[in-house]
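Pair request: fold both.
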Amino acid sequence: MHDNDPEVLQKEKNRVLSRNINDKTSAPHENAPGWNESLASASEAAVKADKSPGSPGELQSKTVEYMRARRVEEGDGSASTTAYYSRDEVKGPLSGAQGKEEVGDVTEDSILKKLKELKGKVKADRGEA
């Protein structure tokens, strides 16, 4: 969706006007030829999804295929969907998932201990007892 971004609107307009008729990136869904998610508003996309005969899983898989085809067309060429960057710590049943990084625990006691040390140093600098 464009979210009223003039750059996205212009880019999609130019792409639509210059594309090939047999282009695989023209529309992700058979029941909506010519549909362009990037030119749609959020409400139009919601209505389109509601009227689609497919299940949410089918819509998701078609959208992923569409986005991969768009990425190749735009020259990115990257087909990977794995993020290789630091993530926030996950606690609970997913904490053992692939890519988990061990992070040291910061407890309230360790914070209070450090705070007392710093207060002592400040008082010493001021000449207070």
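--- second member of the pair ---
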Amino acid sequence: MRSIIMAELRSAWTAWFAVILAFIATSFAIILPLLAWVGVEDTIATGLVPEMDVPALRFLPIWNLALALLAALNIIGAVTGLVVESRRGALARLALAGATPGQVSRILLAQLAVVAAVGGVIGGVFAIVAVPAAVSMAVGDRGIDESVVVARPDLVMALVGLVGFIVLAMVAGLRQSRVAAAVPAVEALRTIPGASVRRRRIGRWVGAFLLALLIAGIAASTFAMAPQLGVDSADMVLQSSLICLLLTGSFLSVCAPLTIGLLTKAWTALVPSRSGPWVLARASVIAKGERLARTVTPIMFSVGVLFGLGVLLASTSALLRSLGRDGLEQAGMSTLLVFVGLVLLVAIAGGVSVLLMMSRQREAELALAGVVGATTRQQVLMSVLEGLVITGTAMILGLAMTVVGMVVFVIGMGALGLVTPVVVPWHVLAAVLGVCALITVAATTLPVLPSLRRSARTVVAQLAAE
């Protein structure tokens, strides 16, 4: 039995290696705010920071850490679920060889702990290197001379962050390991979902309903409290808008496996092309609803957060100018990075990891397309089109996040008697979509290119063996 367990540990490393980028990015996003918090406190202790800027500087590391923790739970759980799903056959063989559910769960948790430790150490090193630049960016964004910055990396705090990340990864992966261990060996070998999928659907609807209630409650309380607090509540309205925007992303991600296939089918039907690569790419994306949902969600967050915050900042600046005050012209890309840079890094890394993890399935699909007559050029074009379809769906969902955030902002400001002009920075949207499309297309296309030089039979047989 021990030899079987060791063989499973050795054979699983390729699957975990495909998602290690998500672990590195997540650990970086958790450790960096902790180190930045120490740097900010040391900088404030010099007495050279204006008193009015102290609360905002102290708030930034806490804000980024909270966002990173929220994103980490989702991303680590998602990529762990993908690895577990890809190892269903191997886990079934362990069970058939006599492994108990507890042993299977411990094997998965041991693998997760090792990967989290490796990714955490790498991410921690990057965070230590980046902390002076991070503190300087936060200070400079407030218009303060960066020469006052004191940012000596605190190794004890870095170690605390590393341990915290490993614990967080174990918590995020605990449910996945228990679910995988509880699946009977015969059920694990099936390719058709059973009752467990139906139970997950019920849970998703319940979760989506609770998130919708939370969003509505935050919006309603903001609208009710704003008139009582007066103009001083403008900051509260802006913060509530951003929170509702992020929660809308969580709501859409929970609903994604249930609705995203229908959304993609609807908008892609508007494309008049009937070329073979487009038809096959569209059908492949729509048919793999669970894969599409896991891929689209991180890209959706990237589009929604970046573009949504851009619209909020531009509209706030226009509102201030209409009141005869200074706008936010100094708020550029550095402001966006200070507020949401780390959560965007986690989202993009998670998206790339998901795409890389699913590249083996995509290789088999392209091999089957080659069997029915697709040329190498058409196979490559199918991968490119699949990446564009994913980006298009993510754009629609990201715009939905932005709309919810702006509705809360406009109505909240209206409760204060302020008419808010909605300013859409189209250049930000174009830049965000361009970068996301480039990353997604590269992640869907580049990993499968080597498989096009092998025979279709070999590619399909390798996937079946795993």
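Observation on the second member. The chain has two domains: 1-192, 194-466.
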